[in-house]
Amino acid sequence: xxxxxxxxxxxxxxxxxxxxxxxxxxxxxxxxxxxxxxxxxxxxxxxxxxxxxxxxxxxxxxxxxxxxxxxxxxxxxxxxxxxxxxxxxxxxxxxxxxxxxxxxxxxxxxxxxxxxxxxxxxxxxxxxxxxxxxxxxxxxxxxxxxxxxxxxxxxxxxxxxxxxxxxxxxxxxxxxxxxxxxxxxxxxxxxxxxxxxxxxxxxxxxxxxxxxxxxxxxxxxxxxxxxxxxxxxxxxxxxxxxxxxxxxxxxxxxxxxxxxxxxxxxxxxxxxxxxxxxxxxxxxxxxxx
Length: 289
Known about the structure:
The chain is an alpha/beta fold. The chain has 2 domains: 6-97, Methylene-tetrahydromethanopterin dehydrogenase, N-terminal domain (Rossmann fold); 105-255, 3-Layer(aba) Sandwich (Rossmann fold), CATH 3.40.50. The protein is built from 9 helices and 12 strands. The chain has a 7-stranded mixed β-sheet with strand order 7-6-5-8-9-11-10. A 5-stranded parallel β-sheet has the order 2-1-3-4-12, with helices on both faces. α5 (132-143) links the parallel β5 and β6 (147-152). α2 (40-51) crosses α3 (71-84) and α8 (251-269) crosses α9. The chain is elongated. The model has no long low-confidence stretch (mean pLDDT 95).
């Protein structure tokens, strides 16, 4: 008889996400052991509790999900999880990082754009590019060969993200762009074929008056579900809707794919015990949907 599928949920927030727990159950986890307020120094004992209680042949039915609202904090937990596993003894489990839903949302957004553009020839502007989702979108686009502009109100923050992407994506064509005033728009939008808005809820990042500076725009993806839209003129439910000659996706339009990706990623954890699912691996899953 197969052992039940157990997912260990490590959340960096005080209360572990109910959303992530529900998705895990819907994706096939029989039990979700959810811990909140997890810090790096607490990871080892939790991981060892997973890997020492089942033999190597059963460890594909135990897995770890890392969540919380801060991607940087989640990345630190992932580093500690990797150190706590003991692959030399066959004692390891598969792990998914999806803090703030950044990996699954970014994968869904880039997958939507890829339906209409050849990403290797695309010129992409990521608005809110220093946020958790924006960083992942920019990284995935760079990985696919796109020319990427990381847009932010603060140039120093955009530069830091661009530097991080270059460190993990060899040959990445990525540029930091300050976008705060109307005068910044022409340079940022020149030649752009794809815009992804991943900024704070309820903030208009690309008003219609600035769209005159991007006549080459083919696809617009707005990940903001809270009015007003991040890209003015895109409706929250748009899913490949053409508006003024631009293919548009809104947050709900992308959200359906995000949920499919999220569930597929959790289900994938229980197929093997040696997977580390970060942005690129989650995007690969999204491409197969």
